[in-house]
Amino acid sequence: MTALAAEDLVLSCAGRVICGPLSFAVATGTTVGLSGPSGAGKSTILRALVGLLPPAIVAAGRRTVLGVEVGAAGVDLPALRSRAVLVGQTPVVFPASILANATFGVRHVVRASRAELRRRAEAALVEAGLWDEVADRLDAPASELSVGQRQRLCLARALALDPLVLLLDEPTSALDAAATATVEDAVAGLAGRRTVLIVSHHQPQLERLCTQVVTVAGTSPAERSV
User: Fold this and answer.
1) Check whether domain 2-223 has CATH 3.30.1060.10, yes or no
2) pTM to 2 decimals?
């Protein structure tokens, strides 16, 4: 089955094409990469897939995520974003505990007891490869974490929603080699259980993590089905 797809997707700003046309399809449970030069529009494509484009950017063509046509009238985009979660390039943590950060998204979407929210957060921290490092200090401020740990905390925050699709934007761009390896291990562990679309400027990383790679060439036509 196809989890997400773009068909003749073109992104424009002030009448100028900044990306596309681009077509691809991502099968359920696979990890697929978006590759291309800086400024080609890779991050903007991720935002387009969940309806988070800034007003100045217009999307043409078809975007389908979990059977929902993103550009159609009346689409419940907040509901879609709880099932197809975008994790941004910069790891943002809130001035609160590690546990509070891990439950931040899910407690605004799911009506559940405190115990259930904690269970989901702990399971997400395990899946994100962070549990062993924070299990004994969940009430400590998230600001005490390293950048690599913050990146995995943001991943855990997304995983606590139990999403079907994860969109990862340069998840290791600010990390050293050791932290990059740890985050890559966490992403690799999602294979077969989540559908992942990952943007990275690092081609070897995409080759390690992805079953297929879609090349984005900015304003030049690029099309590849996966």
Assistant:
1) no
2) 0.89
